[in-house]
Write a structure and sequence with these properties.
There is one protein chain. Helices cover 13% and strands 47% of the residues. The protein has 191 residues and is mainly β. The protein folds into 2 domains: 156 residues, Jelly Rolls (Sandwich), CATH 2.60.120; 26 residues. The strands form 3 sheets. Strands 2, 3, 5, 9, 10, 12, 13 and 15 form an 8-stranded antiparallel sheet that branches. It has a 5-stranded antiparallel sheet with strand order 7-6-11-4-14, with no helix packed on it. A two-stranded antiparallel ribbon has the order 1-8. The radius of gyration is 21 Å and the shape is elongated. The relative contact order is 0.32.
Length: 191
Amino acid sequence: MLSVALLALPPCARADTLLLALNQTSVVDTLSANASLSQDVQATSNSTLDGMAFFLSDPSGAPITYSISDLTTSSSLFSETFDDTTLDPLLTTIAIPEGAKAWLELYLPPTTLLANGDTYQFSLSGAGSLKVGIDPTSTQDVSLQPVGGSTLGLRVWGDSAVAPELDSLLLLGTGAAFLVFAGVKRKQWIQ
C-alpha cells in the first residue's frame, strides 16, 4: 500500500495563532476519487497564513490535493498535490495511516496572504476516495469567518495584522522611559 505523506507542523512547534477552527467533526462523508470538497471563509483582517489542516483519512493511499483560492479576485493562492514522490526531504512529513481520521496539517509558504474583506475557498480532493470530516460541531474564529455555513473540519494557522492596544503601547512607553532614566542615573553614579 502506498502511504500518503503530507508536510506536517508538529503541534509543539506551533507558535502562531489559530485563525480559524471548525472543530473536530462527528459526521464523516466519503469523497469519491477526483471529487473535491471546499469551505469558504471571509477574512476579517489582513493575515499571513503558514498552516492549514483538514480532518480526514485516506483509505486508498492515493495523492491528496490541498488548495486555496481567492474568490474575490478569482485567483489561486496555493495548490499542491502531496504523495511520496513530491515531498521536500528538508521538511517534516507524516504518513496517513489507512483509515485513521486525524487533522492532517501542512506548512504553507509564508507569503500566503489573506486580505481583509476577501472571501477564500479552502479545498481538498484525492486521486482515491477520502473519508472527510464534515458538519463541524462548533466553530472558533479569530480573523476568518465561515461563509455559507460550515461544511468541512478545517483549521488555519497564521499571524493576523491587528493593531496593538493602547494599554500595550503605554506599557512599552513606560518601560522605555524607565530604561532611559536608569541609564542616566547609572551614568551620574559612575561619575
